[in-house]
Amino acid sequence: MTLLIKSATIVDSKSDFHNQTVDILIEDGKISQISETIENTKNYEELTLENLHVSQGWFDSSVSFGEPGYEDRETIANGLKTAALSGFTDVAVNSNTHPVIDCNTDISFLKAKSFGNAVNLYPVGALTRNSEGVDLAELYDMQNAGAVAFYDYQKPISNPNLVKIALQYAGNFGGLVLSFPQESKITGLGVMNEHITSTSLGLKGNPALAEELQIARDLFILEYTEGKLHIPTISTAKSVDLIRKAKAKNLNVTCSVAVHNLVFSDESLVGFDTNFKVLPPLRTQEDIEALIEGLKDGTIDMVTSDHNPLDIEHKKVEFDHAQYGTTGLESAFGALNSTFTTKKTVELLTKGKDRFGIENHPIKVGETACITLFNPDDTYTFSSEDIIATSKNSCFVDHKLKGKAYGIFANNQLVIK
Asked: Cα–Cα distance between 26 and 10 in angstroms, integer?
């Protein structure tokens, strides 16, 4: 399609027009002209939006949709619509499904279901068969079918030798191994952060030690294997420090943090709202400050919404029995933009592409148009009406946010609210 975007401020340090307000002409999916003013002499379709800003398309490294098996929580079709209207052009989709995505035909299924969509879906195959942590899944075959990484979603690998073998094997073909940072024997039956708040609420605690032990173990194994490791959704100050030291030793390690772990502390659980029951759990304010500092200095490589839609039967129950997870695509930008500058927020939402082997498209003439459209100054209180996902389990409801996505232009398609 042909589209003329009017009066858009570009937020892209790789663009010659960074921080400038310009018109952008897109023809056949490519940027053909960028100028202060472009005359619409050929009656192009025009797009004019209030306080419009554009950037390279945003990427989320940890998204769950449910399909196949949990379509009542979310389908791939509606999940991709949610991603698009939340500003994401690229999403890495977890094997948090039934059956688990653990072979090449499963990867092909996800790719086929997303074919022709504006949003690019990148499957994350299970690291082990059926995510049971016993035998490695078909990693090489899955990568050939389109998997960008391997991860047993939120299931720690208890066998350290399996992590060693996975890193060694995947290293032969450049595969990216993800290891969830939790030592389950330390966690026990803990359902929230072990601290003063858990004691006052009478809830069993999940100590920071459980995360830090697992990270320390995996970093030792990584150093031995010289593999390629990504640690998803860290949550403690000491975890940041461990990874900072590992990077100083030039280990091939990256990590992410979930947006909600940057915003809410364990004190948010005082009302026993199960939407705040997430994994890893919400930690202390001191941990939040360390995570934010880790993002600022580059120790933490990327942020994720860790979007995990869950139906009411798994959330509106006693706290101990509720499942872990919150939706987050719709609120990710507003939450981050309330914490960081818009430039830093955009950087955090695009930075993870390289690690997952996803192509970047700067806003330049001749480049493929893969852009996010947003208003960074729209201040509002997030409500259930802002949730596009089928499931409504968001911990951001009634929280004040700054910034809202209009949508995206990607794969020669415009998707806006």
From this structure: 15
Q: Tell me the three state secondary structure of residue 237.
A: helix
Longest dimension (CA), the chain: 69
Interval 134-159: pLDDT, tens: 999 999 999 999 999 999 999 999 99
Amino acid, single-letter form, for residue 320:
D
- Whole-model pTM? 0.97
Instruction: Supply the DSSP symbol for 27.
Output: E
> 2-53+364-380+400-416 adopts what CATH topology?
Urease, subunit C; domain 1 (2.30.40)
- What are the structural domain ranges in the chain? 2-53+364-380+400-416, 57-356
- What are 209-243's pLDDT values in tens digits? 999 999 999 999 999 999 999 999 999 999 999 99
CATH of 57-356, one of 3.40.50.150, 3.40.630.30, 3.20.20.140, 3.30.70.1670: 3.20.20.140
Chain segment 300-351, per-residue pLDDT in tens: 999 999 999 999 999 999 999 999 999 999 999 999 999 999 999 999 999 9
Query: Sign of dihedral through CA atoms 89, 174, 221, 128?
Result: positive
* Residues annotated as part of the active site: 306
- Distance (Å, whole) CA 220 – CA 312: 41
